[in-house]
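Researcher: I'd like a candidate sequence for this fold, 130 residues long. If you have to choose between options at a position, lean toward the conservative one.
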């Protein structure tokens, strides 16, 4: 999933000369301590920052996202099968990324905010809570 996310956003391997790097913050779930994940991070120069156990406040953005998707997607439907759940969640993720306004991104959808940032160097300080 991380590789797909980097590809979709056209993020290239960081340039060591200009000091840029990619940082991913996660909890200590099994997928994040696996050998394949560690090797991927090393190969693509992704710095993996783990939050201490029992400190969800240090990962507030993803915790907020989980709350939003629970409220706006999971609780809205009764899923009869995996395919239906997959369809509804995929549909919601498209809405979330392309049409839902986010207060922390100056009331822009994430895709629009990211595009402005890439095209015009949209200053991060314009994002209220970043």
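Model: Candidate sequence:
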């Amino acid at each position: 999933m991380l590789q797909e996310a980097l590809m979709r956003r056209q993020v290239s391997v960081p340039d060591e000369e200009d000091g840029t790097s990619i940082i991913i913050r996660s909890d200590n779930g099994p997928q994040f301590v696996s050998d394949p994940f560690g090797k991927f991070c090393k190969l693509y120069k992704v710095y993996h920052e783990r939050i201490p156990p029992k400190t969800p406040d240090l990962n507030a953005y993803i915790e907020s996202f989980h709350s939003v998707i629970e409220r706006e997607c999971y609780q809205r439907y009764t899923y009869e099968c995996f395919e239906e759940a997959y369809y509804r969640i995929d549909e919601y993720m498209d809405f979330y990324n392309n049409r839902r306004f986010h207060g922390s991104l100056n009331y822009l959808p994430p895709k629009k905010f990211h595009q402005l940032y890439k095209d015009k160097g949209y200053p991060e300080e314009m994002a209220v809570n970043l």
